[in-house]
Amino acid sequence: MRAPIGTFDEAWPAAERLDVLCPPVAEAVTARHTAGPESVLYVDTDPEKADTAVFAEAYGPGLLDASANCVIVAARRAGETTLAACVVLSSTRLDVNGAVRRHLGARKASFAPMDTAVGESGMEYGGITPIGLPEHWPLLVDAAVVDRPHLVVGSGRRRGKLIVTGKVLAGLPGAAVVEGLAR
Predict the structure, then answer these.
(1) pLDDT score of 180 more than 50
(2) Which CATH number fits domain 11-178: 2.60.40.2470, 3.90.960.10, 2.40.30.90, 1.10.10.10?
(3) Rounded CA gap, 71 and 86, in Å?
(4) Membrane-spanning regions, if any (predicted)?
(5) Which of 8, 92, 151, 178 has the smallest number of Cβ neighbours within 10 A?
(6) Three-state SS letters, the chain
(7) Per-residue pLDDT tens for 119-142?
């Protein structure tokens, strides 16, 4: 199958590539495959080219604007820390101390430490995806992501990416669409 965006050699329904997905992502793809077999596609990519700018240069013009990053945030209030995932277009910046902090009702919000994000998500750094994150985490999706017909997101590993629609991301468990999450 041909990928709808990018210059990838081949794309597969992610449910057919469970062997290359990390366990939480494989489980989520299997459990939530309700929008049809092609609602979540997997493309194989070089793990050395996983970082957004390098990835976009390697796999096709326009991918920077057709990619979304999943950022794990630690929000604190009254001595309690809540981890949350935020999905924004790769060409934008997450408004951690404004929109994220306000939406989560936190006194302070910051990027989660790498070892916390990796350990709690069960995914590799540089490949964290909103698909398969712990369901009790808030999942904030920037409104600009929702209407995108195709987006590249992490696969849970540095090798490989998933291609989804913005609507698939907005429909994930615990997802809340937030206007102005990114600038």
Answers:
(1) yes
(2) 3.90.960.10
(3) 5
(4) none
(5) 92
(6) CCCCCCCCCCEEEHHHCHHHCCHHHHHHHHHCCCCCCCCCEEECCCHHHCCHHHHHHHHCCCCCCCEEEEEEEEEEECCEEEEEEEEEECCCCECHHHHHHHHHCCCEEEECCHHHHHHHHCCCCCCCCCCCCCCCCCEEEEHHHHCCCCEEEECCCCCCEEEECHHHHHCCCCEEEECCCEC
(7) 999 999 999 999 999 999 999 999
Which pLDDT belongs to residue 109?
A: 96
End-to-end CA distance of the chain: 35
Tokens 């994150």, residue? 133
Six-digit token pair at 132?
């398969």
Q: Compute φ and ψ for 113, nearest 5 degrees.
A: -60, 145
